[in-house]
Specification:
Blueprint lengths: L5 H7 L5 H12 L3 H11 L3 H13 L4 H21 L5 H25 L6 E7 L6 H12 L3 E9 L1 H10 L4 E5 L7 H12 L7 E5 L5 H7 L3 E3 L2 H17 L2
Parallel strand pairs: 1-2, 1-3, 3-4, 4-5
Length: about 250
């Protein structure tokens, strides 16, 4: 259905890139008025409303995955775009993340009990020397919602910590974030460390963060790059498909 929630329609106007608009709009329009109210409540950080609306939706017999995609993730996708474009800042993102957690508290147990196999497994950290994690945390939230198992390595993650975590958790993807131009080269150093250990071909590597570009990712030898939480999930899915196809 079209966007009937006036507040959500106004929030959606901040999504200006055509590919993002079509992707997020598709998720929103898959839901009804209740899902649109949930998405708007998440964007505005009303965790009490998100909590109540999630319970109501599940109580009406809606599938947990539908509530997740059409209500929570569609809202968080708008939050991610607004944060990247400097329309909102860290406090607003943290408030929206709290609202997301309020909804996930009801959805996580259902998804865990369903026994559905995860899409893939990733380890995700901010690289050595960098203490920023808001963008990383947004991506992790979106990836978990999309069906990935993601192990959060936190900030200031050294190359050997990526290697150890990837091995211990049977990761498919090694994902690195950086916000400082001075720490961006540590992405390449991390990949080089995997190469030195003879492990480069065991994993697919993804990079991201405000100053990171596709060209830089290519120069560092990464397999994928995401400039926001939405493209992060999409590229991760693409890389998993490549891994599965190669056997």
């Amino acid at each position: 259905m079209p966007i009937v929630h006036e507040g959500l329609a106004k929030e959606f106007e901040y999504v200006t890139q055509e590919d993002e608009r079509s992707m997020i709009l598709e998720q929103i329009e898959a839901g009804d008025a209740l899902m649109q109210q949930m998405a708007y409540s998440l964007i505005t950080g009303d965790h009490n409303a998100v909590n109540e609306l999630t319970q109501k939706a599940l109580g009406e017999g809606r599938e947990a995955n539908d509530v997740l995609d059409e209500g929570l993730i569609s809202g968080m996708a708008v939050v991610g775009v607004k944060f990247r474009d400097n329309i909102i800042f860290v406090p607003e993102v943290l408030i929206a993340a709290r609202a997301m957690k309020a909804g996930m508290a009801h959805i996580d147990p259902i998804l865990s009990a369903s026994g559905v196999e995860p899409i893939g497994t990733a380890v995700f950290g901010t690289v050595k020397g960098d203490l920023h994690d808001i963008g990383k945390n947004l991506c992790i939230m979106m990836m978990r919602g999309a069906g990935f198992v993601v192990h959060d390595l936190g900030v200031d993650t050294k190359p050997d910590e990526f290697i150890e975590a990837a091995d211990e958790n049977g990761a498919d993807l090694v994902m690195m974030s950086a916000l400082l131009t001075t720490t961006m080269p540590n992405m390449g150093r991390t990949i080089a460390e995997f190469e030195d250990m003879g492990l480069r071909d065991e994993y697919k590597f993804m990079t991201g963060g405000a100053p990171v570009t596709q060209e830089f990712a290519d120069d560092m030898g990464a397999d994928g790059y995401g400039d926001n939480a939405i493209s992060c999930v999409d590229k991760a899915k693409e890389l998993i498909a490549v891994i599965r196809a190669s056997g």
